[in-house]
Automatic annotation (TrEMBL):
Protein name, as recorded: Nucleoside diphosphate kinase
Keyword terms of this UniProt record: ATP-binding, Cytoplasm, Kinase, Magnesium, Metal-binding, Nucleotide metabolism, Nucleotide-binding, Phosphoprotein, Transferase
Enzyme Commission identifier(s): 2.7.4.6
A GO MF term: ATP binding
Name of the coding gene: ndk
NCBIfam families: PRK00668.1
Provenance organism: Stenomitos frigidus ULC18
Length: 149
């Protein structure tokens, strides 16, 4: 079953949107298999956002992600990587559709509330960067046959 890495960024945690954001993935039909509230080290932030190292916003992004707690999560389900990106919305919340997390709660690209892996390779890399194997829980929700044919 496909898995993706999602993280509620410091703005989402500070704005008390953790429950609201988790609810959207739960009610869609995805399964939570890893969850932790944590402070992010500079080393982890710089590795996670390594592809943006040369961008002008990189230093500010690392400062922001390390400034307050983050909720790191792994979600499982059919098509969860691409579907989570749709639920999250476009990178700039001003371009995100209403109904998406960023579209409903954000106005600024530097405060866009949540991260989601963008492809199968990055999902795998990010899950193993943020979580140890033993922190992930393999389980079968009782409702699975009412969500999947
Ligand atoms: P994504 O989070 O939608 O996948 P990416 O392009 O991978 O978007 O950018 C990673 C993160 O970097 C964004 O979520 C946002 O927090 C930050 N970011 C991207 N572009 C800008 C910018 O122009 N100014 C400030 N922050 C930015």
């Amino acid at each position: 079953m496909e898995r993706t890495f999602l993280a509620i960024k410091p703005d989402g945690v500070q704005r008390k949107l953790v429950g609201e954001i988790i609810r959207r993935f739960e009610t869609k039909g995805f399964t939570l298999v890893g969850l932790k509230l944590m402070n992010v080290s500079r080393e982890l932030a710089e590795t996670h956002y390594g592809v943006h190292r040369e961008r002008p916003f990189f230093a500010g992004l690392v400062d922001f992600i390390t400034s307050a707690p983050v909720v790191a999560m792994v979600w499982e389900g059919e098509g969860v990587i691409a579907s989570a990106r749709k639920i999250i919305g476009a990178t700039n919340p001003l371009n995100s559709e209403p109904g998406t997390i960023r579209g409903d709660f954000g106005v600024n690209v530097g405060r866009n509330l949540i991260h989601g892996s963008d492809a199968p390779e990055t999902a795998q890399q990010e899950v193993s960067l943020w979580f140890k194997d033993e922190e992930l829980v393999n389980w079968q929700p009782a409702l699975l046959s009412w969500i999947h044919e």
